[in-house]
Specification:
With 150 residues, the protein is of the alpha/beta class. It is 17% helix and 13% strand. It has a domain of 72 residues: Ribosomal Protein L15, Chain: K, domain 2, CATH 3.100.10.10.
Amino acid sequence: MITLDSLRPFEGSVKKKKRVGRGPGSGHGKTACRGTKGQKSRSGAAIPPGFQGGQMPIYRQLPKRGFKNPFRKAFGVVNVSTLNNLEYDDVIDINVLKGRGLVKKRDKYVKVLGNGDINKAVKLKVHAVSRTAREKIEAAGGTIELIPIG
């Protein structure tokens, strides 16, 4: 039976802490593994990231530019000609397109554009469709269901 006082960690899973600065016999005495002299050998010496020896750091030399819109919606783009070559009979949605590698896995939304021609009826379930793509798909007998973006 296992009791709390009989629990032990597995052999080799727990290492002893390296105790530095405890005399020459330990092999980590005197300079305590810090080398000799200089800023990094002193106590309390932590050089901040980005410090370049007093020179103006690169992040201060370069200007801040532009604006990053936090509400931007990034669309994966699929053309009508790509849908024409796609061998799939059921409803084509974002999961099908991601599975075939036609849109990137990180894309949350899909937009169909009208580049190329289509001559077969496809059932689409996407977030956005251009006007020319809608005309071409409906002329070929296809249907489009728009998913609300949110």
